[in-house]
Amino acid sequence: MNCLIFVALVILAAVVPVAEAFEPTKPVEIIVHSAPGGGSDLFARAIVEMLQKDNLYHQPMHVINKSGGSGAVAMSYIAGKKGETHTIGLFTSAVIFASLTQKEAQHTIQDLTPVVHLVLEPSVAAVKADTPYKTMKDFVEAAKKNPGQLKQAGGVVTSVDNMFRLLIQKATGAQWTYINLPSGAERIANLLGGHMDLMLENPDKVTEYVRAGKMRIIAALTEKRLSALPDVPTIKEQGISIPILTQSRGVIAPPGIPSDAVAYWENLFGRLVKTQTWKKYVEDNQQETYFLKSRELADFLEGQTKLLRGVLKEAGVKAVR
Amino acid sequence: MSRYLQAHGVFKKNVVAFNNLLFGFSIALAPVNLFWCFVGTFLGTVVGVLPGIGPAGTVAILLPLTFHMQPTTALIMLLGIYYGAKYGGSTTSILLNIPGESSSVVTCLDGYQMARKGRAGPALGISAIASFIAGTFGVVGLMVAAPPLAEFALRFAPPEYFALMFLGMSMVAYLTGESVLKSLLSASIGVWLGIIGTDLFSAQSRFTFGRPELLDGLDFIVVSIGLFSIAEVLINLESNVKPDLFPVPKGIKNLLPNMQDLKDCRFAFVNGSLVGFFVGMLPGAGATIASFISYGIEKAFSRHPEKFGTGVIEGVAAPEGANNSDAGGALVPLLTLGIPGSNVGAILLAALFLWGLRPGPLLIQEHPEIFWGVVASMYVGNLMLLILNLPLVPLFAQFLRVPYYLLYPVIFGISIVGVYSVNQSLFDVSLMGVFGIIGYFMRKLDFPVAPLVLGMVLGTPLERALRQSLLMSQGSLTIFVKRPISAVLLLFSIVVLLIPILQAFRSAKSLQREANLA
Lengths: 321, 518
Description:
The structure holds two protein chains of two kinds.
Chain A: H1 2-19, E1 28-32, H2 39-53, E2 61-65, H3 72-79, E3 87-92, H4 93-99, E4 113-121, E5 124-128, H5 136-145, E6 151-154, H6 160-172, E7 177-180, H7 184-192, E8 198-201, H8 203-211, E9 215-220, E10 247-253, H9 259-272, H10 276-284, E11 288-292, H11 294-315
Parallel strand pairs in A: 1-2, 1-3, 6-7, 6-8
Antiparallel strand pairs in A: 3-10, 4-10, 4-11, 5-8, 5-9
Chain B: H1 2-28, H2 31-49, H3 55-62, H4 71-96, H5 105-116, H6 120-153, H7 158-170, H8 180-195, E1 197-198, E2 205-206, H9 220-237, H10 259-264, H11 266-281, H12 287-300, H13 314-337, H14 343-354, H15 363-366, H16 368-389, H17 392-397, H18 404-423, H19 426-444, H20 450-472, H21 479-482, H22 484-517
Antiparallel strand pairs in B: 1-2
Helix pairs in contact in B: 1-16, 2-4, 2-16, 3-4, 3-14, 4-5, 4-6, 4-13, 4-14, 4-16, 5-6, 5-13, 6-11, 6-13, 6-16, 7-20, 7-22, 8-20, 9-18, 9-19, 11-12, 11-13, 12-13, 18-19
């Protein structure tokens, strides 16, 4: 009898390490840096919905909004959860870019555990339909003729739109004015009203205006042509050679979590991006799935930060890290 | 002949609009839509009454529940929350001096004073009636003229926004207490508080004192709850102030506005409806700004401007009307162009995408059922809200019978929970405490609070619009007078600024005449 128990224990001991691999045992918090209704908030709620719809995940997952400081508050919150395996968070490039000029940010994405990269949001350059610019080249030529006269509607100085402007200006020698407008709604309204000449946006935000004949897309700021816009040439095809910045979205976790927890989340999101539901979501939003695991994501973030720091420095914006 | 044809064309157009509206009602009155419209407006009222969490947060949180609904039904419900919250927002402003929503901050000024005088019932009643009238006006505006109005809204670029914010700022002339100097000082502090945060143009932080929580600036509702309700509690904690119960008259007749009240508010209804609707259409402004401007206009053209702030009923009707008419206005650019006119609008835009629709210039043409269903449902919803809110008035008024030793802890508790619910941040709660103490000393030293709040709301948009305009004109100030809309608005602001000076001059003259006669 004792012998049997011993055998049973030995078998159990052999099995246990496998059974011990991380699996959530209580509700998981998913931290987003935007307020309810913001981009990351809606993305998080869609992820939760998709994970449950496809039966990939069964524990409750709560979206927690830690807005403030363009992500600095959320980063600090996640950093404070050191070793906590039941907390994950979403990041965007905007958060990484903003942290470069914030001396107040106590924690940045570098202090956290990278988990996966999920999607890239491409940018396109759009003008009002009744303007003479058919291509980015036309626009650049017009800007060269009247330096500083043409106006681009964009966001904060560290946003991807402004980075692209600085890169294109440097590559072509053209100069135009950048007007900071806080919301996408104001940028679109100003372009449609004819007050501004150019804007850079995600394609899903402008395609409806193109379809209604109110806007024209003059370039895709991507490496390859976009599948939804096969007729729009990329900026490189137009002879303007610049490094491509992307707007990324992905998942991070608190610092110091065990590697099996990282592996669990990598695996879960790896399965999510293969589902039909996910593919439809990404297509509807005109995004592009770009899946990277923890190690590759760390390198990717490093590269983007380095590129951006260089652009900011040349533009005379004070970077603090 | 051509005139006949033209008239015929107009007639035909009206028939089409009428048919469309009937089509809309056939959608809005379907039992399932009627049910969800009620759910939305009811939830909206609840969210509006509770301070802190606003319609934007509620709509976002409920969004996933709508994924399995018909888009029209879902939109009807979510919009019900949006305009329903505007009805409820005035309740705590009037009863407890706690602004329920940021667009009901101005309502505290006269609403709470009315409650102190035993007129809480008429104040609550008039805000429901003003909300209904202006809300319905907003829907009519949306229905008859959405596409041309949206084109008009597109003519607003930074110089026009600058002129609009300047007009709003000139309203500070009407929010003064006894000392103009103290008001201006108070407004300047407000502008400074608004500046705290990250500068849009340089990405550099201003006055953040090394705190990451301050990078996005101070939350307006947190500051106002501190300044209004916490300060109120602190003042009443002083032992030498004998806190007395607010008088609550008996009989339902005294709890609702009477004919004279309605007559006094005639102009306020029109003012609130128009200002709320036009400001609501602009993507860079919103209900809070609209409520301030309509209050200022009401006071500027009043026969008894000196009584504002002591509990005049027009001071409640104008801003409450404006923040409701804003809902109809905000839908104009959203449904005709896919440009959201408010933060709730931005969430609804995202929702339309998630439901598989393509919001943009072609939405009305390709999905008439959405536009007309929504328009009709808003008539129904506003009526539901009036029926829902008027009977609640006598009920809410009874709340003031609660003795002060219970009431003040309740105000304290509601304020803390409300502020915490905005960002789930304890930092915000302590900030509210700090502003409570600031508000206490402001009251002690006779500094009016309203100009501070106005400065905080308008300061940053004013600064932004100024810098954007100067970037556009490469530094030339003539951009503000060269553009017709901004020139007219600036001219109007000058008139608004001159009226009190003329009034003071005239009353000084008549005083002198009296003195001479004596």
